[in-house]
């Protein structure tokens, strides 16, 4: 057989068609199916709640009051208010994407020692809270609870604090209110940016929870304090650092050199930073 016959254009074209039909087309179909699955089940990826029966009894060594808030249409939000004897104010803490108040309640110790009450709710579907999740519900519920807090505390006494998933929610609330301070632990720029870093092969238009920390933070008037671990494997340091460009001279960005996601409290540096915030900045 002549060489020019082996490498003729019709033969090459036929070979490419076979590759496209037998390899590329199945891969493309698989990719489309994968994108569809990610789009419809992303709540299972983003949120990992622990559900609790309504009669579950919390046990903490700190005094607390359990509260329920009726949001209508069968939706009820559960929250805990840890109370000191003579509070300087209250920390409104919005937790991460997993577990429930059964675990997160212990985080109140980080602020309780500075004579601040700590108000901590569970999101819809977490713990004893009921209802279906959506970005609108997350943001609206958090703002509603802030407004309820103002029935007990002056706005100048409220410290908004968010951890991980709770950071864009806390920032959203701060952008529409006037708290004393906004504290963000392990914040991400926005959910699309975070998804791009973890799943670079997927289009970001699939993200149904954009959670635009970068957008909300530009409308915050309160002083901002950001704490981020340098070795965070869930929220890469770089995505938190992108928020620096929106900070003013009244704000601060703290880096915990060996901090990872979920273990900042294990470092002495973390507690020194909190002490600085609560004993110096909040005493001014």
Q: Low-confidence parts lasting 5 or more residues at pLDDT below 50? A: none
CATH homologous superfamily assignment of the largest domain: Alpha/Beta hydrolase fold, catalytic domain
Which sequence of strands runs across the widest sheet? 2-3-6-4-7-8-9-10
Order of helices and strands: HHEEEEEHHEHEHEHHEHEH
The CATH architecture of the largest domain? 3-Layer(aba) Sandwich
- Mean pLDDT across the residues is 89
Residue share in helix = 25-40%
Number of helices: 10
Total E-strand runs:
10
Main sheet attributes: strand count, strand direction, barrel closure: 8 strands, mixed
Estimated structural class: alpha/beta
Question: How widely separated are the two ends?
Answer: 90 Å
Shape: globular
Domain tally: 2
How is the secondary structure organized here?
Layout: H1 3-6, H2 9-46, E1 48-49, E2 64-72, E3 75-82, E4 90-94, E5 98-99, H3 101-104, H4 109-112, E6 117-121, H5 135-149, E7 158-163, H6 166-175, E8 181-185, H7 191-198, H8 213-216, E9 224-229, H9 237-241, E10 252-256, H10 268-279
Parallel strand pairs: 1-5, 4-6, 4-7, 7-8, 8-9, 9-10
Antiparallel strand pairs: 2-3, 3-6
Helix pairs in contact: 5-6
What does this structure look like?
With 284 residues, the chain is α/β, with parallel strands linked by helices. It folds into 2 domains: 9-45; 47-283, Rossmann fold. Helix content is 37%, strand content 19%. The protein has 10 helices and 10 strands. The protein has helices spanning 3-6, 9-46, 101-104, 109-112, 135-149, 166-175, 191-198, 213-216, 237-241, 268-279; strands at 48-49, 64-72, 75-82, 90-94, 98-99, 117-121, 158-163, 181-185, 224-229, 252-256. Strands 2-3-6-4-7-8-9-10 form an 8-stranded mixed sheet, sandwiched between helices. The protein has a two-stranded parallel sheet with strand order 1-5. The longest helix is centred in the first third of the chain and has 38 residues, at 9-46. The chain is globular, with a radius of gyration of 24 Å. The termini are far apart.
């Amino acid at each position: 057989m002549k060489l020019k016959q082996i490498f003729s254009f019709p033969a090459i074209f036929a070979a490419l068609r076979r590759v496209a039909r037998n390899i590329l087309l199945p891969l493309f179909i698989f990719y489309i199916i994968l994108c569809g699955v990610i789009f419809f089940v992303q709540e299972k990826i983003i949120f990992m709640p622990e559900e609790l029966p309504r009669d579950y009894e919390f046990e903490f060594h700190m005094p607390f009051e359990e509260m329920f808030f009726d949001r209508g249409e069968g939706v009820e939000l559960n929250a805990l208010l840890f109370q000191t004897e003579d509070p300087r104010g209250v920390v409104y803490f919005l937790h991460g994407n997993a577990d429930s108040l059964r675990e997160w309640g212990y985080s109140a110790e980080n602020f309780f020692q500075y004579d601040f009450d700590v108000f901590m709710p569970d999101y819809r579907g977490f713990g004893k809270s009921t209802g279906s999740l959506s970005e609108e519900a997350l943001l609206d519920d958090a703002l509603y609870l802030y407004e309820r807090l103002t029935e007990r505390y002056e706005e100048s006494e409220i410290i908004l604090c968010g951890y991980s998933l709770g950071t864009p929610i806390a920032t959203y609330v701060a952008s529409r209110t006037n708290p004393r301070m906004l504290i963000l632990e392990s914040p991400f720029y926005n959910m699309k940016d975070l998804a791009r870093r973890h799943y670079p092969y997927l289009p970001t238009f699939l993200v149904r929870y954009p959670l635009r920390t970068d957008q909300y933070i530009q409308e915050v008037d309160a002083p901002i304090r950001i704490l981020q671990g340098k070795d965070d494997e869930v929220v890469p340091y770089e995505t938190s650092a992108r928020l620096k460009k929106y900070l003013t001279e009244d704000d601060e960005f703290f880096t915990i050199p060996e901090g990872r996601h979920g273990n900042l409290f294990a470092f002495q540096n973390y507690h020194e930073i909190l002490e600085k915030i609560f004993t110096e900045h909040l005493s001014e």
